[in-house]
Write a structure and sequence with these properties.
Shape: globular
CATH architecture of the largest domain: 3-Layer(aba) Sandwich
Strand content: 15-25%
Number of strands: 12
Order of helices and strands: EEHEHEHEHEEHEHHEHEHEHEHH
Helix content: 25-40%
CATH superfamily of the largest domain: P-loop containing nucleotide triphosphate hydrolases
CATH class of the largest domain: Alpha Beta
Structural class: alpha/beta
Largest sheet: 6 strands, parallel
Distance between the termini: 48 Å
Number of domains: 2
Number of helices: 12
Length: 347
């Protein structure tokens, strides 16, 4: 049995094709890791495993572990995210069954696969690999020193507003124009999509900004590092990670991500969402500590719960409010946001 102990580990230890484990996910957001892989790497996803109480689907074939292995699945991705990132007894039993069926297992949860002796033993006896995406590599303390290259960071009004989707859409659009642009993953789903990155919310607080400096070092090719944002400066649970990420990224540009109509901060019914103006101003002020010239270049709206007319209206209202191009990356792409970026940040 081999283990992969950092997010920079050899991806051959958890290579596709994938079976996506949804377990008993309670809603669509709970399965966001699996959903992200189906969206951006559909060719890697052979099927999904759903428990008896699962309330969502990522719309690939349902399979048990033996069927998935027979269909060519090499790795089962634990494709769910929950508060605290815990592995329940049912999930532990299912992971052992997947290992016994001959698959590697990769997880992005805070609770490590390697913390369960029964999982470790199952991997050992089957000669399979375990990968904990939330085990960060060793990184330095941030120093805020100016480094060469250009960087964009996505920020949000809340968690799960589309920061990873937006960053990947920006990479696709910019590469399509022949520009050098690289997605820098900072969360478990992004790491699985990109094959590398750093789980920034698992880094010790003093090292968060340094972790992003490590992830996005100097570059001299005139290209862009597109850094996946996390959390929100307005979320009482996760603002610390968001702030450290802002400082370490030293962004030249920000894109603000938002889901119109969301009733409250994720997981906190007693906290309403902040306004777009306040969110953008607060993020720009925080970013100026290490990047005094930072500018906002667009808004990315997640309008998946709106009908087409409502989506158009939401984008128009946001655009009128902030004077920036507003697009839903999944419905409309991000061409106008990239246009503003190239106009606003000197080459």
């Amino acid at each position: 049995m081999s283990t992969a102990n950092s997010a920079a580990a050899d991806a051959s230890h958890w290579s596709p094709p994938f079976l996506l484990y949804l377990g008993n996910a309670a809603d669509d957001l709970a399965a966001k890791t699996a959903r992200g892989l189906v969206q951006f790497r559909p060719e890697w996803c052979v099927g999904q495993f759903r428990g008896p109480e699962c309330r969502t689907s990522v719309h690939v074939p349902d399979m048990d572990f033996a069927q998935a292995r027979a269909a060519g699945a090499n790795t089962m991705i634990v494709g769910v995210a929950n508060a605290g990132g815990r592995l329940g007894p049912d999930s532990v039993a299912d992971i052992i069954a997947a290992l016994d069926a001959g698959m590697n297992v990769a997880s992005g949860l805070h609770e490590r696969l390697l913390s369960h002796p029964t999982i470790v033993e199952a991997a050992r006896r089957n000669g399979r690999h375990l990968f904990d995406a939330r085990t960060p590599p060793a990184t330095p303390v941030g120093n805020g020193a100016k480094r060469a290259g250009r960087r964009l960071l996505t920020v949000g009004t809340d968690c799960s507003t589309g920061k990873m989707y937006t960053t990947l859409a920006l990479e696709t659009e910019m590469r399509g124009r022949g520009l050098a642009a690289d997605f820098r993953a900072t969360g478990q789903t992004g790491i699985f999509v990109a094959g590398r990155g750093i789980p920034i919310d698992a880094v010790v607080a003093d090292f968060i900004s340094g972790g992003i400096e490590w992830l996005s070092p100097e570059r001299h090719d005139g290209g862009w590092d597109l850094i996946e944002g996390q959390g929100s400066l307005f979320h009482p649970s996760y603002a610390g990670v968001s702030l450290g990420l802002l400082h370490g990224a030293q962004p030249d540009a920000l894109v603000l991500c938002h889901e119109p109509g969301r009733p409250h901060m994720r997981g906190l019914r007693h906290y309403p969402l902040p306004g777009l103006v306040a969110t953008l101003e607060t993020n720009l002020a925080a970013a100026r500590l290490t990047s005094p010239g930072v500018v906002a270049v667009g808004l990315a709206l997640n309008t998946s719960k709106l009908d087409p007319a409502g989506a158009v209206r939401a984008c128009r209202e946001a655009e009128d409010l902030l004077g920036l191009p507003a697009q839903d990356p999944m419905r409309d792409g991000v061409a106008r946001i990239v246009n503003r970026l190239l106009e606003s940040v000197p080459c």
